[in-house]
Input
Amino acid sequence: MSSDAIAIQTAEAAGRPWVATLHEWVTTVDHKRLGVLYILYALFFLVIGGIEATIMRIQLMHPHNDFVSPQVFNRMFTMHGTTMIFFVAMPILFGFANYLVPLMIGARDMAFPRLNAFSFWLTAFGGLLLYFSFLGGNGLYGAGNAPDVGWWAYAPLASRAFSPGHSSDYWTIALLASGFGSIGTAINIIATIISMRCPGMKLSRMPLLAWMNLVMSGMVLLAISPLSAAQIMLLVDRYLGGHFFDTQAGGSATLWMHFFWIFGHPEVYVLIIPCFAFASEIIPVFSRKPIFGYPVMVGATVCIAFVSMSVWAHHMFTIGMNSYANSFFTITTMAVGVPTGIKIFNWLGTMWGGKIQFKTPMLFCIGFLFQFLIAGLTGIMMASSPFDWQLSGSYFVVAHFHYVIVGGILFALFGAFYYWYPKITGRMLNEGLGKLHFWLFLIGFHLTFDLMHIPGLLGMPRRIYTYEPGRGWETLNLLVTIGAFVQGIATLVFVANLVISYFKGAKAANDPWDAWTLEWSTSSPPPAYNFASIPTVASRRPLWDLKHPEDPDSRYE
Amino acid sequence: MHRTTHKTDWGVVVGRATGILVLLAGILFAAGLCAATPQDNSVPSIFDPHSTPADSIRHLSHFVLAVTGLIFLVVFSLLSYVVVKFRSRAGDTAREPAQVYGSTQIELAWTIIPILIVVVLFLATARVIHAIQDAPKPAEAVEVTAIGHQFWWEFRYPGLGVVTANELHVPVSDPSHPTPTFLKLLSADTDHSFWIPQLAGKTDLIPNRVNETWLDPHETGLFLGQCAQYCGTQHAKMLLRVYVDSPEDFKVWVRGQQQPANEDEKEAAGKRVFERTACLNCHAINGTNGTGRFGPDLTHLMSRRTIASGAAENNSQNLRLWIQNPDSIKPGSLMPAMKLSDTELDALVRYLETLQ
Output
């Protein structure tokens, strides 16, 4: 019945002028369309951020290279970092959350559809504003500059004395705008999960994806608020004569660091927890087993959220805190390893004894597991503060957090794309291209980021536009650059797959992976109202119960 | 194991490919480290320390690497085993595997063991934190104030009356009679970070804040480092050189630095250029009316091997180029192009070259 409805809609859509379709997308309050908008918007910026990374890698290919000037290089790493965190990772994860959470908890939309649209357009505005700085950064004659203060804009570098013109203002206001968007979305996700679950879906029966997005949203509220406060303080400093961070008038440079990192570290978990969520949905389905230790998984997630609120100063081990503070942040940081380790073991426990199918989503999840393990272990190394006095601010750190963000977050995201693309578009992504994408990206990733650790151990600091020959960094940097190009090609394969499969891909059934959560019970793509009648659930895997009436989960929970 | 179909067995492929990748990565990693540690300290590797704090960090890092390496081996073996062993095989029955929901004992085990590991790692770390941060300052210690500038280093030895830039000289420290160097770290503008990987971990120089670090080198020689906290356009060329001298050489160096600037009547013309242009707004030369502090003190300029904070060798050609157009050596440096005539430039360079 629901698939008939969608067919009628599509037939109607085909006859309409494109302006009407555009108008419909721009004014939409449907969580699925907003989800798709978020994802497309983020993919666009992923390509831009990738180009910026490529420019940096070309510059660092040889010592004393002059492909770009120091000024351009500094803008590139500032824009690359800001773009990838605020305008790729956050929106793409919000996009998936928007699309999936209502479907997985059996709701027809988010709790506040119009707030949802408002949040998306605020975020979109933030991104445009950031990039408008290329034109308007100097505020005169259109001869502009993008911000070049680094993505964490340490004081006093971002003060007017050291950052004249408007480039830092664009950065600040872009982050403020998108930050309010993020807060809106977080409130919306929390409200939706608390109050819109279908009958029978107790919190203890909620899919892990919903649980983890609930925790993520709570963290967004706690993390983005101090960031927004700091941005406002910076604006006060820059325009109203305030002295919060103005060291020339007695302000505090370390105050900004505290504000930034009490946002910055939880932010890492804001990004990784939804990726844990993808892994926790995909790994069980392709292992043909339920998630191992559901209550512990939920507990570990909440535990990570709490502990990660007290680790921020491990980004500041080199600022000269006393030995007690350094010890405190060492142990809290190491403590995060415990619940994170539990998660890795629980995913392994899920695969143990299963019948693992190596479809593309699962391949990416295995890659995620492997790389996230290494990222966690290099994290432990840096938690050991004396070791960090050597590693901090070096290429080792750059390699570490790209291991988290690319090796962990992006791999899980690619898995999510292959897994939910059929639901969102009604077409399967091509498996052959998918596997090519996976292997190419895996090789490029390891070539780049495995080797990138070493120059850091050999004393190469990050954020330098060039380096001296003879320090043992040359060959490594060349190989890292080659790896970056391999990743670029793999990403093109992915984009090609998205486009080709949209038009030519095999038609997807409602439940192509033989999965167990509610989104697979409706048509692909789902109708505007999601479910013809609101489902009722009796266990964590309602579709398992449906497919195995002789042995339903509800018997054991 | 006998399979009758020709379908690719992805489990085996994944397992082997990952194995090969890990092996390759390991070999490359080790090769990279080995190839890059020659004897002359041109590679500032953190695993080749020559000073007490850097040495204790290396010891700690070996322990942490061993523990994390072991964890990696265990978990990676488990992952490989699971991927190969529990792959769905061709010709398998369509039945689902046994549905297992969890196990309290196992989950308790993989909670408690990591907690114990964390405790051990923390205790090992806390010892080193204390040993480095709370080290007592012996009476024989050399005291230096290091001030970070965009984009160079100012070094002042308050007890010795010495002021220099970019190239720090410290005495070698004999373990039986240690003469460590304690540095007070200040900043004149933005954040910087003092990092000589072979001598000590990095410590930031932050405006409105006094930080401290110390070196205790056991071997003479030149040790390289650079600013490790992004500080603006030319962060990359804010290089740092530390000369560890024998006690005698250090005394000689200090005595040389304590002398007033060399007066050479023949180069009075060059001195006039220095005193009558904007040079003296930023640079000091002892015995002239130049007392500026925005740029390096030039009193003993020629005792330094490099100019522009290590960006170029200190010779007449580079000096000339640097005064004429600093951007050609270090684009974005705060030194302005001086726009001198050729005669003035020649005279000035000749004068500077007398400042031994």
In short: The mean pLDDT of chain B is 91. The first helix of chain B runs from residue 10 to 35. Chain B is about 40% helix and 20% strand. The CA atoms of residues 25 and 301 of chain B lie 46 Å apart.
